[in-house]
UniProtKB/TrEMBL annotation, chain A:
Cellular component GO terms, alphabetical: plasma membrane
Superkingdom: Bacteria
Region named Disordered: 223-247
Protein name, per record: Osmoprotectant transport system permease protein
GO biological process: glycine betaine transport; transmembrane transport
Cross-referenced Pfam families: BPD_transp_1
Source lineage: Bacteria, Bacillati, Actinomycetota, Actinomycetes, Micrococcales
Membrane protein topology class: Multi-pass membrane protein
SUPFAM superfamilies the record matches: MetI-like
Keyword NADP applies: no
Annotated InterPro entries: ABC_transp_perm/SBD (IPR051204), MetI-like (IPR000515), MetI-like_sf (IPR035906)
Family: Belongs to the binding-protein-dependent transport system permease family.
Keyword Iron: no
TrEMBL record, chain B:
TM helices/strands, residue ranges: 20-41, 48-69, 81-100, 143-167, 179-200
GO terms (BP aspect): glycine betaine transport; transmembrane transport
ABC transmembrane type-1 domain sequence ranges: 15-197
Membrane topology: Multi-pass membrane protein
Top-level taxon of origin: Bacteria
Gene Ontology annotations for the cellular component aspect, listed alphabetically: plasma membrane
Family: Belongs to the binding-protein-dependent transport system permease family.
Keywords (A to Z) from UniProt: Membrane, Transmembrane, Transmembrane helix, Transport
Protein name listed in UniProt: Osmoprotectant transport system permease protein
CDD domains recorded: TM_PBP2
Amino acid sequence: MNLLLDGIAWILDPANWTGVGSIPERIAQHLAISATVLVISALIALPIGTLVGHTGRGKELVVTVSGGLRALPTLGLLTLLALWLGIGLQAPIIALVVLALPPLLAGAYSGLESVDRRTVDAARAMGMREGQIIGKVEVPLGMPIIVGGIRSATLQIIATATLAAYIADDGLGRFIFAGLKTRDYAEMLGGSILVILLALAIDGLFAIIQRLVVPAGVRATRTRELRSRPPRPRAVVGRPITEGNPE
Amino acid sequence: MNWLWSNLDLVGELMLTHLALSVPAIILSFVISVPIGWIAHRYRWSRGVLLSLCGLLYAIPSLALLIALPIVTGQRTTSPINLVIALTLYGIAVIVRTAADAFDAVEPDVRQSATAIGYSAAGRFWGVELPLAGPVLLSGLRVVIVSTVSLATIGAVIGVQSLGSLFTDGLQRGIQAEIITGIVATMVLAIGLDWASVAIGRMLMPWWRPSAAERRRTLDRVERVDAA
């Protein structure tokens, strides 16, 4: 327990909150790297995933590529790129983009695929153009899953951005590697705790967003019944009386 | 290529070390998550709690977990046991959701028929539910195999020997072949273990014939784990 207290004491130490390489500066760097990577990879993956989900073509290819990318060890990619591009932010950013692609692609195409085909057909029958079907029907309905993909990509990026400090002098991972070099466990632990808190905070934020992006129409019709069907049909099926309290 | 030929025994040795780190973690996480998944399936109230906990666990960055874990376990950061525990935790975070889905997917009619012909609760679990949930459990296990083998390399940056050591060493000494060898060896290991798991699955579940459609569904499951 003393170790944990040391780590917390390190975080609370005012000396670590000012000057060059202070905690706020590292957090800002960490977030800046993560945001840059997220934007780049989203610009690549979301349009492709949307097209694949809409047309259903090329799904096998996308699945195979993203499966292969998953087996690729992060650290290997990072060190290889660092060797080619030199020390600096370039290598980590490219490596992180590559790692963020699979969850983003998966989220986009499974989001669009999750939309009931009959709904899509109905939209087409009403005379919507393909672009309208994507923009007004499939994307809104698939949004929770698309955001889910963005959520796991973001978590992956934040986690791996920690490793980026192995190559570049940036981000919260710097504390971990600096502490490792000087055998200062309090600093390593303090850095780790900050990374964990950051990841959990972002995850929580996305959990809220994921709830907010459910279209109002879907939310209204969705029953609160999230469990699977009862094992046998019940004799009496009714709605609970809420006594005029809108649920 | 020259580097590989002159360091073949080093690579072989590290592959064995890597196996010794990842295989226990994979097996442990499977053995631990199946009961947890069953609880999440059986007792509805526990489902939300268990699955959210797993989600939180999965959100924790691996390097940070490796360093913070010794507070709880009392191990040294650099000990292989610490890495195995961390890998096991991540494995659990992935399989529990799949395991809950797997047990959910067993037809209620089948379960009730089993009870009707006299299976006890335990007998029904071992004789009916577990085998029927098998294929989906296996698909979850395959996801964990690939991610665990790849994740185990992270330990190298804090000094746990594995195939990841080829990355850190290769970077420091500027040997490109060493890093590429490490990447290829890691992927070979992951694919090999994946095949082995499918082979064992075929042996244990001789009735299971993964059709093309089912194989595609396995891949879908992988994606859903990602998006969840």
